[in-house]
Amino acid sequence: MSGVEAGIAADLAALTAYPDRHVGGPGNRAATEHFAERATALGMDVRRDELPCIDWEHGEAWIEVGGQRFEIEAGPYSLRCVTRATMLEITTLEELDQPAIAGAVVLLHGPIAAHQVMPKNFTFYNPEEHRRIVAALERHRPAAVVAATGRDPEMVGSQYPFPLFEDGDLDVPNAYMTDVAGKELRKYTGDLVRIRIESGRVPASAEHVVATLPGSREGRVVVSAHIDSRRGSPGALDNATGVATLLAAGELLSGRPDLPAVEFVPFNGEDDYANPGEMRWLAENEGRMGDILLGINIDDLGWRGTVNHVSFYECSSGIETAVRGVLLGFSATAEGPQWFQSDHAIFGMYGVPALALTCSDIGGFMAEYAHSERDTVELADPALVAEAARFVADVIEAVGRMRA
Question: What is the DSSP letter of 115?
């Protein structure tokens, strides 16, 4: 194992030392501390700011009816609910948007529960149908919502069942259960049920870190990888490998002259409903996006047995030619298809040219490991991460030469 790979392995071990890195939790705080200390040791200018956020505590959750108790899962960031109410079943938005659901326990299944509903205040992607579902719930105020869900391949197929809502701004108690259990519960539609959801929101704080390697050329390159993980997941590929790539690339670039400034941003909150780190960074960069020469985002990279894939967004022909020239020198990195479920979408929103790096089987990873306790450090190949870091460093050098 080379020195770069050994450093990456040490970073991965530190970043996955906790059960998860959810925003507001101890694992998240330890991860940002590790990144800041490593970046400082590499000679970068490091800025650290407190990031207010909401943590979540939960306990038992169940529905009782007809002498049976159905176990359910409290929806992330749900409010507490202990009540008796009539249960109604709903399959479509049209059925949901009616006064009759007021004060009822609403069982959502079928088409309306097929895909996770985006948080009500989510800036980056929020379909009209999702906004209408949230609006109907807030307008008619059911006592609680229980969603019977299967798998959502458009989100993360490894989660079964998946929470239909993950929203700290939605003030309707909610829970979820498997579609199979939901089929049994539907037999009691119209009956009086007892429901208990022990859940609550807790004010918390995390950290927003930005590390900059000063440059001698005009403009800057922003290299990003979200540092948080989903609650309950060590987040080795999602996204400790991305953060390790940032640190390794920073170490490689620290000895190279005549570069543009390079800003390393471990976004804190990509897997959180409110995206707090991304929102903070966007506020800091209001009116400054035009000086970014290139954004490079890393997510879900370094899965053993795969290769690295790079894809292009809003790039000029000159940037694409330069990057493809760099690609020729890397045996385990190739051009791959576009995908949009990560922080490179931020650059695209502002017309900033961007690259995204991921593993060549991102679909397989999302279906089997992402957002789960199975995303462990054993999945990660330090050699692939080291190659990604070298590729990023060479791309930044090539883009810097274009501005000479």
Answer: S
